[in-house]
Hints:
Low-confidence stretches: 1-26, 256-263
Number of strands: 22
Strand content: 15-25%
Helix content: 25-40%
CATH topology: FAD/NAD(P)-binding domain
CATH architecture: 3-Layer(bba) Sandwich
Distance between the termini: 20 Å
CATH class: Alpha Beta
Shape: globular
Bound molecules: flavin-adenine dinucleotide, 2-acetamido-2-deoxy-beta-D-glucopyranose
Amino acid sequence: MVRPGAVHAMAALAAAVTTALLVAATHASPPPDADVIIIGGGTAGCVLAARLCAALPRVRVLLLERGAPRNATEELLVRSPRLVAGSWSTPSVAAAFPSAANAGLRGRPVALVTGATLGGSSAVNAAQWSEPADDGAGAAAWGVAHLTATVAARAYARAAATLGVRVPPRGLRHEYLTDWVAAAAAAGLPRVTDAGGGAPQSRRGVWLQRLAIDGRGRRVDAGRAYVAPAARGACARNLVVRQGVTVARVVLAPHHGRGGGRRGGLVGVVGVEVVPTASAGDGRPPRTTTLRARLGVITAAGPYGSAPLLLRSGIGRPQALRSAGVRPVVDLPVGEGLLARSVGRVVGAYDGVPLAAVNNATLLADPATLRRWRAGRGGPLGAALSVGLGRVTTGEGAYFPAGFASSVPGKPEYNSGCLANPTSRGRLSLPVGAAATDPLTPPRVETNLLGNRRDMATLLACMRKLQAVVEGFRPAFGMTETVPGADTRLTEELVRRTATSGAHLVGGCSVGRVLEATLRVKGVGNLWVVDASALPAMPRSAGPMASVYMLAEHASEAFIRQFRGQ
Ligand SMILES: Cc1cc2nc3c(=O)[nH]c(=O)nc-3n(C[C@H](O)[C@H](O)[C@H](O)COP(=O)(O)OP(=O)(O)OC[C@H]3O[C@@H](n4cnc5c(N)ncnc54)[C@H](O)[C@@H]3O)c2cc1C
Ligand SMILES: *[C@@H]1O[C@H](CO)[C@@H](O)[C@H](O)[C@H]1NC(C)=O
Ligand SMILES: *[C@@H]1O[C@H](CO)[C@@H](O)[C@H](O)[C@H]1NC(C)=O
């Protein structure tokens, strides 16, 4: 039992707190199943598991991932960058569900998708590696302990090297990249490096993407780059990866006193409750198992996973918890302050040059193409959905992927889309109704896309720039705008009717609001959140993947210092 008052919040020396809690908590309990339990084998979870088990050979690490091991078909969808869109409609690999209505989109919900397999979203995303265009200032302002711009730069570099991110070699690039660079220059977007240095205006421009894809055209996700080598090597004895189990909630140590855990002291975590993921939809109440952790629990269940997990565990706003049928334990604004990116697409069709191989449906379906890719000789199955990135600085700024592949291949098409830096905030909460506490039901996500005028202005300005890029292709290319369309006026109303989700979502349990600078949940002694939901800001003009890897690398070092000798 944990006696509030015995341990004071002042004692932010987390190591001491953790030990005190655990000595107390383990007295009358069965032996622990692991020393550290990590929830979610996604982008951040795989980094944490691999780094901790390798640096702390005596610490037993248990990584819990809801997705079951992949079969050959599923593995192909994850490994071939060109086929990834097929994974988004494969529930055993990715979870797809609608958002709540967006007022800024005339009440339209948008389709959301997130990874549900080992590697998490890094196994189903566009594999694009982009670091924010702020020289580390953004990360340094998050409020994470010891995370300065310099420390962030080193952690970005460590993750980039572990993944081997690179601009794809020629055989894996799309044709016509040179034409695209020239078209962008004609539209006022010069070729720049993606390193982000220099004055803000000089950060406007285009560059060839670095991708988490190896030289043979295979995706390198967090499972492949971090967990697989660790499990084979340094961590053969102290890392256990369990796939196919969903964590229903974290089990908090009982405590006395009124007003929840925050006033009197810290609540402790005993372990987690898990259910088999395969029990989804079979109508019977799932079989629940409790797994105990000696040192603590790290939540890395991702942008849509960690906040609901805390809410189901009694960490959130008391009134909302009660109406969902959950007993409140710690009062925190979990789920508030969400930031999500919208995307506005600009597409062109060309008839002056041959169809790019990367969008040739016949070629993609040819068994010889698959054989070639399997043999490690690349080809269109090894090419990413987009291969160029660009950045505009109008309004809040935006960045855009561009390329000659499309999710439905077959057409001579050029694809681009603006991902604006958002300022309007949304909210994430438990599902409404009977499924409120069902861990297998997706949460309610108020993305609040284009929720204010500034976000609309930023997106519109960026889309106009992308229209200028389409117009900037040399005449012989035969390029005409098809979306929004050469004869369609790009208006606010059109954007409200067509914008979709950019698949970038952060902030459901962010540092400052919900987490201490150490990423520990406020008021809870040995529970941490390390994933996209911990980020209090959207990485500036960059996807969140690189920043999630960076944060997980940084957090790993702190955990290693803390758990060493325990
Ligand atoms: C389609 C798509 C394309 C994207 N493209 C890019 C891109 O090109 N570049 C970029 O920078 N960013 C991109 N992103 C965003 C980026 O991939 C994510 O922001 C990032 O990977 C999130 O990492 P994470 O560790 O927070 O969560 P995730 O990687 O999503 O990991 C969460 C893990 O937890 C598991 N999990 C969840 N709940 C539970 C539970 N209760 N019990 C057990 N396990 C659980 C999930 O199955 C998952 O494996 C994209 C995202 C998507 C979905
Ligand atoms: C492999 O997974 C796919 C997608 O989930 C599924 O449709 C298929 O039936 C599975 N194949 C086998 C052999 O289990
Ligand atoms: C697609 O590729 C096939 C095989 O290389 C080729 O024969 C065909 O002409 C291509 N299709 C188009 C429209 O270019």
